[in-house]
Design goal:
mainly alpha; ubiquitin protein ligase activity; RING finger protein 121 isoform X2; two-stranded antiparallel ribbon; transmembrane; 10 helices
Length: about 325
């Protein structure tokens, strides 16, 4: 059964007719079907070109707007990005009934809300900075390990190693991609919350100010991140943790400055704002992947938070212009 479309007096007529194709060779049948497809989709090439052009222009303009927004108003940009990172995946996973993600999201939200509440209280309790950095450093390490395991499972599946354990490729791939998604998503979200908490705590302690001079003078025996005394000399080997001296000669608890730089995404001295050399701080080659992983998470934030918004904007423009 085939359909013949005629246009007469402004009216479109669709007439069904039967064509016997039994006498045609397979090649001739393919050519006929190919010709029918071209007739059916005639004019779509220009429409597709318009849609691609709209997508490219929208991506360029959106990128320029986001860059300018981030440079001129970083605080509002970070807050909006953090909100979208927190809410956008929740909307899609609720719609798709991904209950495992919703359970982990709820647990993460409850614990992080409590930690953030502690970090934003004034006066700041002396145990709060360590609590905050311990939680987000733990979350960072778990997300890092989860992402690595997920990536390994995906690569093993691509090379067919899953067949040795009699695991179906689709099951192995779903498991690997899920772990990779969990690791990257909570890694990005945790670092954003950690950065916000780090700003609140350091400003409350008084040795750090995002803009302007600190409100307190830093003593050589005080850590500017947590405000607590430094009990181990730089030259001594600590039992629990060591003391670290930056190139600006300011000293900190090792866990505090590592949390400040890696988890809190700060690459400056908390007191004098001198640039921190991460390669010098993490001279151990086994620790450098953590720095690269943090940079990867910063790049992925754009894909998770803003890419769905930009794609939705493109679809809205196409709908308004009547492009399908």
């Amino acid at each position: 059964m085939s359909v013949l479309t005629l246009v007469a007096y402004g009216q479109t007529l669709r007439i069904n007719y039967v064509v016997d194709l039994s006498h045609l060779s397979p090649e001739e049948k393919w050519r006929l079907e190919h010709a029918r497809m071209h007739v059916k989709h005639k004019g779509h090439e220009a429409m597709h070109a318009e849609m691609v052009l709209i997508l490219i222009v929208t991506l360029v303009i959106a990128q320029l707007v986001l860059v300018q927004w981030k440079q001129r108003h970083p605080k509002s940009y970070n807050l909006v990005t953090l909100f979208q990172m927190w809410v956008v995946p929740l909307y899609f996973t609720t719609k798709l009934h991904w209950w495992r993600f919703l359970v982990t999201w709820f647990i993460f939200s409850v614990v992080t809300a409590y930690v953030t509440y502690r970090a934003t209280r004034k006066p700041l309790e002396c145990t709060t900075p360590r609590l905050v950095y311990k939680w987000f450093l733990l979350l960072y390490k778990i997300s890092y390990a989860t992402g690595i395991v997920g990536y390994t499972v995906v690569m093993f599946t691509l090379f067919g190693i899953n067949l040795i354990f009699r695991i179906k490729p689709e099951d192995a791939m779903d498991f690997g991609v899920s772990l990779l998604f969990y690791g990257l998503y909570y890694g990005v979200l945790g670092r954003d919350f950690a950065e916000m908490c780090a700003d609140f705590m350091a400003s409350t302690v008084g040795y750090y100010s995002a803009s302007g001079m600190p409100t307190k003078h830093l003593s050589d025996s005080i850590c500017a991140v947590c405000g607590q005394p430094i009990l181990v000399d730089v030259s001594e080997e600590g039992i629990i943790e060591n003391t670290y001296r930056l190139s600006c000669n300011h000293v900190f608890h090792e866990f505090c400055i590592r949390g400040w730089c890696i988890v809190g995404k700060k690459q400056i001295c908390p007191y004098c704002k001198e640039k921190v050399d991460l390669k010098r701080m993490f001279s151990n080659p086994w620790e450098r992947p953590h720095v690269m992983y943090g940079q990867l998470l910063d790049w992925l934030r754009y894909l998770v938070a803003w890419q769905p918004v930009i794609i939705g904007l493109v679809q809205g423009i196409n709908y308004i212009l009547g492009l399908e």
